[in-house]
Design brief:
Elements: E1 6-9, H1 14-25, E2 30-34, H2 37-50, E3 56-60, H3 61-65, E4 70-73, H4 80-87, E5 96-99, H5 123-130, E6 136-139, H6 146-150, E7 158-162, H7 166-176, E8 182-186, H8 193-210
Parallel strand pairs: 1-2, 1-4, 2-3, 4-5, 5-6, 7-8
Helix pairs in contact: 4-5
């Protein structure tokens, strides 16, 4: 395991690929995971094309999860439980598993501006219920625009609310500094992910109403030191 590496499970999707591009540009080793190896390899090739010299590899999700101390889960909500169960044996105590999923109603064929109920309270809390003992689950990155992440020539103007256990939360907050324009906001305990995930559905509706295809970001004002 490379202590500087960041694994992105589901890194073949738009948002996961965007994070991979940004972290690679910041000089961090990136491991892209996918259920299908060929898709992971293809995504890694795309990152190298955009970021020459990037240290990036594509692997199946389980292999990718075992290669980095922080693994970011970037899969649609309907694949969240299955993915966590599939990689559980490859995770080790001390690792951090980041949930950026949102229980959008698209999982049931409905619209992306609504949520479905989750028994645990949020997608992040569902991940925490399924993760092995000793693996800390943190909620982050739900509201960051995939389009803006992939525009490497521009900063990403967005605050990232990070929720979870204190020590693991700080580790994930430090990742935000790798992306120009992102600012980490201490979101407290994991239960607050319920609020952040709901904001995602709100932002999707605002994108539609205001016709902002690039994605609307959020900023918090009045923070000390901001």
């Amino acid at each position: 395991m490379d202590e500087r590496a960041i694994a992105i499970l589901g890194g073949t999707g738009d948002q996961g690929l965007g994070l991979a591009l940004r972290f690679a540009k910041a000089g961090r080793p990136v491991v892209i995971g996918s259920r299908k190896l060929d898709r992971a390899v293809e995504a890694a090739d795309k990152v190298r094309e955009s970021v020459p010299g990037a240290s990036v590899v594509g692997l199946e999700n389980g292999d990718a999860a075992a290669r980095a101390p922080i693994a970011i889960l970037s899969v649609p909500f309907e694949h969240t439980a299955g993915t966590v169960k599939a990689i559980a044996e490859r995770l080790a105590p001390g690792q951090v598993l980041v949930s950026m999923g949102v229980p959008l109603a698209t999982a049931l064929g409905d619209g992306a501006t609504r949520l479905v109920g989750v028994w645990q309270g949020s997608c992040a809390e569902l991940v925490a219920a399924l993760a092995p003992q000793g693996v800390d689950v943190v909620s982050a990155f739900q509201n960051v625009s995939a389009h803006r992440l992939q525009e490497l020539e521009h900063e990403v103007e967005c605050d990232v609310v990070v929720s979870g256990p204190p020590a693991a939360r700080k580790r994930v907050m430090a990742l935000c500094a790798l992306v120009p324009g992102l600012r980490a906001i201490d979101g407290g305990p994991l239960g607050n992910a319920r609020i952040v995930e709901a904001v995602t559905a709100l932002l999707i509706g605002m994108n539609l109403r205001y016709k902002v295809s690039e994605g609307i970001g959020i900023r918090f004002t009045g923070l000390p030191g901001a």
